[in-house]
Design a protein that fits this description.
single chain; about 120 residues; alpha+beta; Nonspecific Lipid-transfer Protein, Chain A; 5 helices; 6 strands; SCP2_sterol-bd_dom; SCP2 sterol-binding domain-containing protein; SCP2_sterol-bd_dom_sf
Length: about 120
């Protein structure tokens, strides 16, 4: 079931993230275009807290991924970043390790869950 604030990943064409001017545009793009095969093996509930932009909850289950705007479930892992840093990170312009070391990317909760996200970011 799809509502205004819930969308499921569907196979798509992908594309450059750098053309998106906001985190909201990025999460909308990802919710419609990420190939579920890329999400296979990722399990858990993640909260993306993008300062200045909002929060998104992503629930990964056996290749099925649901993204909802807001904090809708108890996350196992929370990823926090500023909007500009987040967009640079997902476009490949900012290295995740460097972003973490410099404090531009912060995580709390199950760090092994955070590591699983490297397959899709």
């Amino acid at each position: 079931m799809k509502t205004d604030n819930v969308s499921r990943y569907k196979p798509g064409t992908g594309g450059s993230v750098s053309r998106y001017g906001s985190a909201a545009e990025y999460f909308d793009h990802i919710s419609r275009n990420l190939d579920p095969e890329r999400a296979r093996g990722i399990k858990g509930t993640y909260l993306f807290d993008i300062s200045g932009a909002g929060k998104w909850t992503a629930d990964f289950r056996d290749g099925e991924v649901t993204i909802e705007e807001g904090e809708t479930k108890e996350p196992e892992c929370t990823i926090m970043a500023g909007e500009e840093d987040w967009l640079r990170l997902v476009s490949g312009e900012l290295d995740p390790m460097s972003a973490t070391m410099s404090g531009k990317l912060r995580m709390k909760g199950d760090m092994s869950k955070a590591m699983q996200l490297q397959k899709i970011l």
